[in-house]
Every structure is written in C-alpha cells, then in structure tokens.
Amino acid sequence: MSDLIRLPAAELAAKIHAGEVSSVGATQAHLDRIAAVDPAVHAFLHVDGERALQAAKAVDEAVAAGRTPASPLAGVPIAVKDVLTTQGSPTTCGSKLLEGWHAPYDATVTRKLLDAGLVILGKTNMDEFAMGSSTENSAYGPTRNPWDLDRIPGGSGGGSAAALAAFEAPLAIGTDTGGSIRQPGAMTGTVGVKPTYGTVSRHGLVAYASSFDQAGPCARTVLDAALLHEVIAGHDPMDSTSIDAPVPPVLAAARQGADGDLRGVKVGVVRELVGEGHQPGVLASFEAAVAQLRELGAEVVEVSCPSFDLALAAYYLIAPSEASSNLARFDAMRYGLRVGDDGSHSAEEVMSLTREAGFGPEVKRRIMIGTYALSAGYYDAYYGSAQKVRTLVAREFDAAFARADVLVSPTSPVTAFRIGERVDDPVAMYQVDLCTIPSNMAGNAAISVPSGLSADDGLPVGLQVFSPALQDHRGYRVAAAYEAARDAAQGGALIHRVPELEVV
C-alpha cells in the first residue's frame, strides 16, 4: 500500500494503463490510508468508498479490454473540495446551513473528472463557504497540517492540500478566491494552481465572490498539476464568465520546464511582495529560490507594483460585497437548513433564525462588511474605491509583464501557524493572503510550488509564479524547472519528508 499511495499521479496512471497495477488496488490503498490517518488529519468531510471502487473497476475493465483510457489520468483517485456539487453525495461547503444537502447535478469540473475516468474518493474539508485562510472556520471542525498536527494547513482549501500531504489522495481539486489553492499548497509542501479566471468552469461551484472564484488543480508535482489542469479546463456554455479560448499548453510547458533550462526567460521579483511582514525563513527560502532560477539561466529583474500594497484592503471590501449578495440565496425557503418552521413564525423570522443558526461567525462578519460597503451613502467611498484599486492592480500587472515573462514572490508571508493562534484576530488572519490576492484581483494565472523548509520552524514554504492571463503555461515551465532543480539539490522531493503519521 505504501508504495501506491506515494507514487506521483502521472506514474500511477501509467502503471494502471499498462496493467501493472489496478485502479481498484490503487483506490483501495488510498481508502485504507484515509481510514488510518484521517481521524487525526480531518481532510475529508465525506468519503464514498463504494462509488469510488465502482468507478475504479470500470477503468480496470476498459484496460483489460484494450480500450484507450479516457484520459492520461484515468483510474487515478482524486479528492474534491466540498464547494463543488457532486450528484449523489453531500455538498456542504463546510457549513451547517447545507448539512446533508445533495445537489441535483454535477458541477462541470466534477463531470469532467468523471468523464476523464478519475476516481472521486470524496469531498474535502474547507472554511465555511470558502471564507477563511486556515480551515478553522469549517462547521465540522478544523483540518490539521500533516507536517505538524498542531498547525493549520492553510485555507480555505486546507482539506484538499492536507489530503495530498497525508498521502490520502494523489490529486485534488481546490478553489481559489483570494489564494485558497496556493496558500494551502505552500503551507503543506504541495503544488497549487490558480488558472486564469474564466478558463475553468464555475458552473456548480457554490459562489462566494463570483468575480474572483476559480477552481484549479492541487497536486504533489508540477507535472501532475498540469495533467489535471488539462482535464478540467476549457470553455463551458453553462458559465457566463467562461472564456472561449484554447486551453494554454500547460502540460507541454511542464515537460519542457523539467529539462531545467530557463535561458531566455525573464523573471520579475515583485518588490511590494517581499519584505515587511514576512518571516525571516520565508524570505531566505525565497531568495534561495530566486538564486536557483538564475542558475537555471533566467534573467532576474525587480519590478514595482505600488497598488499591490492596497490590494488586500480592496479585496476585503469587494469579496464580502459579492458574498453578501451571493449568500442571500440561503433563505431557508428553497433548500438547506430551516429553523423555526413550526407555524408560529413568519417567513422573514424563519429566514432570520435559520441564517443566525446556520452561518458561522466569519461568514456573518463578511456578510455584514459587504452589506455595509454596498449600502446607500457608502457605496462610492468603499466598494467604488476598491474597484478603482482593482483596476490599478490589473494595470500594474500589465506593466510588469511588459518587463518580465513571469513574476515571482513568496506564496505566503508566513509558514503554517498553530491552530487557534489567529482566530480572534481577523486582520492578522487576512494578512496571510497578502501575496496571493493581487492575482485574484487581476484574474491572471499563478502557481505555488514548494521551495523548501523554513529555517525558522522546519515547515514548508512556497514559491509563487505569476503569469499573464491565458499564458498559464509560462508559470508551469518556470515552476517545473525550479522543482526539478530543487529536488536534485535537496536529494529528492520535499513531500517525502512529511513526518509519518500515527495510524489508527
């Protein structure tokens, strides 16, 4: 079992397609691993072993019959963040308000995974409605970081990242509204990708902030992320924000990058995303990563994006404003939790009682912030001004990309902090998203790849690579080149240094 659960997804898929191992065997190995370690990690909210094994059996039967696999990842197990609808299993968004709710349809991403022959193990834990940076805001309890079970795995998609780091799944799907794929990737020593906004369908993704939300791949290697990216990306007429454009050649770029040659590539270091507020160990790891890129032949320049200093504050006005509108759909009338429906309360009272009981503190905080920002007399001062900052951030990205092919920064200014350490300080929690939010504001692509362990505490650090919109492949090339050099210099993949978890 231990060998199967530690294989990269690309290697596992090749063995399944060659008949060397079975998808059923690989799926069962991961189900056994979940049973053994997830009581401690709590990466999953729901596991559907029976359906997973049925899906795996269908892949094995196709291989035995000599049929071409449905995709390069057919037969490989995968975990899905519980914000994407999956017909036949619960979709809770980490909230009591949707406890036990079964969606009547699959999200487009879910359907693409199934059509490609991937085996969905279950749904992963998350901050409620994707509002959080630590996965402590889940109504079902926090997820723990496999590197240190007393620490957070990042958020909001900490469940997906922790499942990878705990070897409970070789692949996962996350969503990234302000860094919720990349930041957990950095904090768990895994790879997380935010594709260009509009290149992966949002149909069936329960909305937090619609102009930011973007599903993307989570993996343990850049190549695995690229393979998954090509499965889930593409135009979808069911999503009005979907871009009708070819999927960037991310797989070819990842394979090219693995050769380790970055001559001719210009890398821009974003001045505003390096320095104040960063742990010393994070900065040291970043500086070593930049030096490694130079050794691979890249030209490194410094770029300045002054409005990035305002991006965090602007984001936490725009995103809550969209949330206050999006979450109005949870009105206790159509689906989900209903409190006080005993005939003695009006519809308005039932709605109020339900939202009071069903939403957690962070969700309520953001709804109130957003409602205030949109209210008469304050709209221009808050929401309108924040949108102007968003425009400036996009323009400064464009100017920076005129000087460099990709931009780089640390993914998170800090490593994984202890559970409970920041829950009573929302501003300190929000500042963890300092480096990731600009990309969500502009809609371009970004990838986080592990850059080693911090000398401060021995915990993972991430290198973030930004790419222009629809040029996602640039980031994959640079990340893959860096990953190969890092593994060679450090004597193997970082992920295999995760401490062994105590099994039940």
UniProtKB/TrEMBL annotation:
EC category: ligase
Keywords: ATP-binding, Ligase, Nucleotide-binding, Protein biosynthesis, Transferase
Domain Amidase residue range list: 26-474
GO biological process, one term: translation
Keyword Transport: no
InterPro entries documented for this protein: Amidase, Amidase_CS, Amidase_dom, AS_sf, GatA
The keyword Transferase appears for this protein: yes
GO cellular component terms, A-Z: glutamyl-tRNA(Gln) amidotransferase complex
UniProt GO molecular function: ATP binding; glutaminyl-tRNA synthase (glutamine-hydrolyzing) activity; transferase activity
Reactions accelerated catalytically: L-glutamyl-tRNA(Gln) + L-glutamine + ATP + H2O = L-glutaminyl-tRNA(Gln) + L-glutamate + ADP + phosphate + H(+)
Active-site residues per Swiss-Prot or TrEMBL entry: 81 (charge relay system), 156 (charge relay system), 180 (acyl-ester intermediate)
EC number: 6.3.5.7
Role according to the record: Allows the formation of correctly charged Gln-tRNA(Gln) through the transamidation of misacylated Glu-tRNA(Gln) in organisms which lack glutaminyl-tRNA synthetase. The reaction takes place in the presence of glutamine and ATP through an activated gamma-phospho-Glu-tRNA(Gln).
Subunit structure: Heterotrimer of A, B and C subunits.
Xref: NCBIfam families: gatA
HAMAP family assigned: GatA (MF_00120)
Name this protein carries in UniProt: Glutamyl-tRNA(Gln) amidotransferase subunit A
Gene label: gatA
